[in-house]
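Researcher: Please translate sequence to structure tokens.
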Amino acid sequence: MSPTKNSKLWAIPLVFSLVIALSGCNTDTSPTATNTNVGSATGKQKVAVIISTLNNPWFVVLADSAKENATKLGYEAVVFDSQNDPAKETAHFDNVIASGYTAVLFNPTDADGSIANVRRGKDANVPVFCMDREINATDAAVSQVLSDNYSGCVAIGQHFVKEVGESGKYVELLGLVGDNNTRNRSDGFHSVVDRYPDLKMVAQQSADFDRAKALEVMEAILQANPDINAVFCGNDAMAMGAYQALLAAGKDRQVKVFGFDGADDVVNMIKEGKIVATGMQFPKLMAQTAAESADKYLKGERDIPQKVPVAVELVHQGNAAKYGNFGKADSE
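Model: Translation complete:
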């Protein structure tokens, strides 16, 4: 072969290699690459909505509202379901940090266990804004928008005594053991009912904020304690499960059920006289506040409160008509 033909043949792989090398300059997925986020293929910055679980209508509303508000503010928003599994939550953060997201609207799985994920986001310049559930750190998330769980359950406790009386036997179904909401709700409730020594708690057991597990737990408790007067549940999903167990046992009229969340199903059952009361948490308001805080932060504002409390309102048969759609009845 002549020198000219030989040089042409070698030129083809050299040019191809040069193209590959140049294109590779734009594929850095290291944490430092997130400092210069350029957004998605649509040209919009991306916001992740990482939710503890979507196996609960209340959290579906929180997720949908967060996504909707972020979209309205001009971002591309994607929802991730952690399925109450810290390992899945960690994998979501890995994905979000590597994929160029600019912020996270976050509903943690664990008050202590989720801190490391939030710190990794912060270190990668991906700010995190907690919704509903908090983490036990004040230097990791930019902001935490939280229901006033303690005060809300003080009101539940007061209504509990009013409806059940100053004596009787009751059961408490707790949420996730590692979640601060579980402790704050229980503490608020007991700050009232423990003043009445003739109100006896005959069982206290975790049902993980889960309706199906609450059904199973309540069935077992009823076998050992068939003469209870009431059950306080740390969220509405568990209240629904407890009511289902009571209905199956023919004790739905004997035992008064109290929940917490403000889920539509429970609000409707309060209107029908099947469940006594719940606490309205306003998930749409929390999601909106978190999204707006993220938008302000991404636009340069730094004067954002670390914790933003959202008041909880007692919902009972006397005022239930005012509530619906996971908030006030006339809200969108």
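Researcher: Any highlights?
Model: The longest helix spans residues 3-23.
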